[in-house]
């Protein structure tokens, strides 16, 4: 740790981080092309951009793309376990303030978010890059408290983490009076990375509480149909293997949820030759799972047979403490959705007679892994303490897929800067930009695109240069 304007685990890891950044740049053609295209114009010049997004090597390339377009950036992670310490160090030595390390406590996590949101002169950001909506939520709660509605801070909080957030807001009310109402009106907009964050933004918009414009990056086709699917296909089993070093082949795996992340996760497991079961509430997604060849059933029915459980729903209480007490001995439980409330961990720890043994802490490769033993002698393994397995126990998605997501992020930040007076609401990027992101990644894969003739374009009623699909097309 350091007294400089950053807080990372070990600044001496910077050189190693830089070497991995160099490798990642070659795998992130969209971001490098965006630097090239907008470098001269400097569309983010003078703008303060705060990011709350997993501080990985890939994110480091995003940060350097934003700074190369003129932005003044501060960063924190959006998960206590997802920081790659060498990536954080490599960025910190360039003078970009980073507040992130692997294995933060909840208090440290929220303090880092506050620090990343607060420039040294006390000002806040013009724009935010958010993943899961924690930075946006903190600002909205802070404004609510400073506007006189402080009752909610007295709780009861719905979780230990919510209590930590309430305590932070109370501290800031005293230490930085007027902070939130000073910084919030200057914020022009946020670009949101993930399904869960978009869900939060839409809830705020519907209640009329949203304070600034938001770009829904997640629902660019080149984000959710790539990162959520192919990213998880790569990184789910990577995480399980690093955590447990277990053979997945032949085991029965239960995937809860068959949306984009569920589809990628199921494929990750089936590629390892697991037998995959799926649970769903949506009949369309359930039917898709059946058509792909998976058995659709409930968690309850999977209990006697499943060896591995993966939650992918973005919903809560998917695997209950009772479920875990009835699983097969040595079952593996993990979550790849954004928040850890998909699995009832607090309830599990409160169950009479349950004992917890730490197998690997978060500073050991593949950790954290914990074993919970029940009074009947059976045990289960919980990976990444129920937080995102792929970022907690492994290194998240690979660079190429994140290049698609982060090119959307960069374009969204430029779009917010260029449309600073846009009304408050949640918007998506245009299909032209979505197609552009895909186009930027084809060359690297040696793909050769076919060009429509004017006659063909007229026949199917699309412009020769696109967009090629109507808005309602589902890909
Ligand atoms: P989605 O909305 O496409 O899929 C979620 C699915 O879960 C839906 O089909 C829904 O019907 C189903 N579901 C909801 N409640 C359920 C229940 N009780 N039982 C069974 N199924 C249920 O969302 P998406 O894009 O797949 O994202 C899921 C989560 O993963 C979100 O929290 C998102 O933020 C996160 N995410 C994580 C990533 C990672 O790298 N770990 C990458 C991208 C997203």
Automatic annotation (TrEMBL):
Cofactor note as given: Binds 1 NAD(+) per subunit.
SMART domains for the chain: AdoHcyase, AdoHcyase_NAD
Cofactor section: NAD(+)
A Pfam family matched in the record: AdoHcyase
Alphabetized InterPro entries for the sequence: Adenosylhomocyst_ase-like_sf, Adenosylhomocysteinase-like, Ado_hCys_hydrolase_NAD-bd, NAD(P)-bd_dom_sf, S-Ado-L-homoCys_hydrolase_CS
Sequence ranges assigned to domain S-adenosyl-L-homocysteine hydrolase NAD binding in this UniProt record: 228-396
Main location per the UniProt record: cytoplasm
Residues engaged in binding NAD(+): 194-196, 228, 257-262, 280, 315, 336-338, 390
Pathway(s) the chain acts in: Amino-acid biosynthesis; L-homocysteine biosynthesis; L-homocysteine from S-adenosyl-L-homocysteine: step 1/1
Compartments (UniProt record): Cytoplasm
EC number(s) per entry: 3.13.2.1
PROSITE patterns found in the cross-reference section: ADOHCYASE_1, ADOHCYASE_2
Binding residue positions for substrate: 56, 131, 193, 223, 227
Root EC class: hydrolase
HAMAP family recorded: AdoHcyase
Homology family: Belongs to the adenosylhomocysteinase family.
Record function comment: May play a key role in the regulation of the intracellular concentration of adenosylhomocysteine.
Protein name: Adenosylhomocysteinase
Species of provenance: Lentisphaera profundi
């Amino acid at each position: 740790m350091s007294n400089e304007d950053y807080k990372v685990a070990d600044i001496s890891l910077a050189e190693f981080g830089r070497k991995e950044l160099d490798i990642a740049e070659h795998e992130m053609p969209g971001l490098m092309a965006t630097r090239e295209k907008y470098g001269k114009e400097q569309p983010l010049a003078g703008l303060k951009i705060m990011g709350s997004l997993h501080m990985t090597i890939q994110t480091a390339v995003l940060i350097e793309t934003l700074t190369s377009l003129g932005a003044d950036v501060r960063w924190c992670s959006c998960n206590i376990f997802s920081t790659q310490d060498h990536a954080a160090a490599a960025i910190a030595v360039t003078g970009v303030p980073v507040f992130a390390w692997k294995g933060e406590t909840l208090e440290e996590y929220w303090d880092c978010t506050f620090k990343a949101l607060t420039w040294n002169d006390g000002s806040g950001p013009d724009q935010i890059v958010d993943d899961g909506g924690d930075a946006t939520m903190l600002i909205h709660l802070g404004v609510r408290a400073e506007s006189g509605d402080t009752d909610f801070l007295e709780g009861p909080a719905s979780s230990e983490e919510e209590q930590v957030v309430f305590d932070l807001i109370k501290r800031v009310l005293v230490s930085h009076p007027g902070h939130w109402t000073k910084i919030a009106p200057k914020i022009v907009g946020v670009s949101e990375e993930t399904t869960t964050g978009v869900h939060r933004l839409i809830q705020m918009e519907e209640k009329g509480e949203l304070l600034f414009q938001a770009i829904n990056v997640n629902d660019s086709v080149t984000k959710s149909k790539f990162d959520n699917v192919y990213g998880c296909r790569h990184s789910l089993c990577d995480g399980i293997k690093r955590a447990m070093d277990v053979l997945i082949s032949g085991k029965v795996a239960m995937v809860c949820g068959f949306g984009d992340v569920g589809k990628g996760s199921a494929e990750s497991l089936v590629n390892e030759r697991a037998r995959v079961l799926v649970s769903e509430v949506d009949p369309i997604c359930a039917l898709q799972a059946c058509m792909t060849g998976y058995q659709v059933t409930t968690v309850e029915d999977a209990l006697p047979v499943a060896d591995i459980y993966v939650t992918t729903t973005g919903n809560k209480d998917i695997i209950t403490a009772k479920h875990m007490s009835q699983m097969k001995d040595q079952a593996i439980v993990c979550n790849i959705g954004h928040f850890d409330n998909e699995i009832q961990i607090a309830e599990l720890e409160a169950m009479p007679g349950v004992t917890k043994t730490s197998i690997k802490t978060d500073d050991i490769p593949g950790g954290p892994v914990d074993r919970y033993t029940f009074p009947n002698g059976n045990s289960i393994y919980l990976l990444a303490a129920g937080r995102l397995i792929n970022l907690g126990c492994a290194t998240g998605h690979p660079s190429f897929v994140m290049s698609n997501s982060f090119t959307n992020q960069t374009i969204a930040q430029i779009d917010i800067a260029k449309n600073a007076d846009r009304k408050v609401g949640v918007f998506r990027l245009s299909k032209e930009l979505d197609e552009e992101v895909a186009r930027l990644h084809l060359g690297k894969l040696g793909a050769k695109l076919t060009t429509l003739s004017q006659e063909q374009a007229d026949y199917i009623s699309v412009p020769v240069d696109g967009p090629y699909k109507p808005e309602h097309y589902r890909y």
